[in-house]
Write a structure and sequence with these properties.
6 helices, rod-shaped, mainly alpha
């Protein structure tokens, strides 16, 4: 019986020794996963940086077009703030249309759209 216990004890020590020298697959997988996460984060950062640059360029290119369009629309429609100011002062819609060189319908439309602001 004592011989059996000694043999089992020797086998257990040998197995513990072998387990220390075996490759740890879990550690390798963890390292590989960490490496993939870092590389993915770097790529995302680079893409966000490029997107920011492209957005800035697009905004710079669009700004002159928007300014031109808004100035053309203001010239065509007349200035709504001036029309509303004249309406608040008590001018008639026909008089405002004549002074702003617009039609009576456009003046009525501007006044109706901003009726909530006036009251």
């Amino acid at each position: 019986m004592t011989i059996m216990i000694i043999i089992l004890f020797i086998i257990s020590i040998a197995l513990i020794g072998v387990s220390f020298f075996q490759r740890d697959n879990v550690k390798e997988l963890e390292q590989e996963l960490d490496h993939l996460q870092l590389s993915a984060m770097q790529e995302i950062y680079k893409l966000k940086k490029k997107m920011r640059i492209v957005e800035e360029e697009l905004l710079q290119n669009d700004a002159p077009l928007k300014e031109q369009n808004s100035s053309i629309q203001e010239e065509e429609k007349g200035n709504p703030t001036r029309i509303l100011a004249k309406y608040r002062q008590g001018m008639s819609i026909e008089a405002i249309a004549l002074s702003e060189a617009t039609t009576v319908e456009e003046v009525k439309l501007i006044v109706e759209q901003n009726e909530r602001v006036l009251t």
